[in-house]
Amino acid sequence: MYNRPLSPHITIYKPQASSLFSIWHRISGLFLTFLMVFFLISSQLLLFITNSKDILNGLIMQLEVSFVFQFIYIFNISIFFYHIINGFKHIIWDLGFFINQKFLFLFVLFTCFFIFLTILLLL
């Protein structure tokens, strides 16, 4: 009928750090769930096709050397740690502690530092 946008409030307000972290927490949870299901199905298919764990171990050892596999590994580990750290923040907030801007700023700094440290340690 009318030629108006459905949700104009999205374009009016500036995104807040807490809402962005909440959205990324949900996206990372979906990604990790998809990754786990993909890993379990693919490993079962490889075991079914090869009928031998020795062939599967040789394939895994060849993959570990590749740069792409190492990048994917570091990317997945950093997403996993982000999801864990942000989950702790949600638990703390659900308990009613540290619900203020100062804690949010410190949490953002801690999360970025910890993810950066994790990537450096994995390299």
Automatic annotation (TrEMBL):
Membrane listed as a keyword: yes
Subcellular location: Membrane
Pfam family, any one: Sdh_cyt
Entry's Gene Ontology cellular component terms: membrane; mitochondrion
Domain of life from the UniProt record: Eukaryota
InterPro entries for the chain: SQR/QFR_C/D (IPR034804), Succ_DH_cytb556 (IPR014314), SuccDH_FuR_B_TM-su (IPR000701)
Molecular function as annotated in GO: electron transfer activity; metal ion binding
Binding residues for heme: 83
Essential cofactor(s): heme
Co-factor: note: The heme is bound between the two transmembrane subunits.
Name this protein carries in UniProt: SdhC
Protein's organism: Gracilariopsis lemaneiformis (Red alga)
Lineage: Eukaryota, Rhodophyta, Florideophyceae, Rhodymeniophycidae, Gracilariales
This protein's encoding gene: sdhC
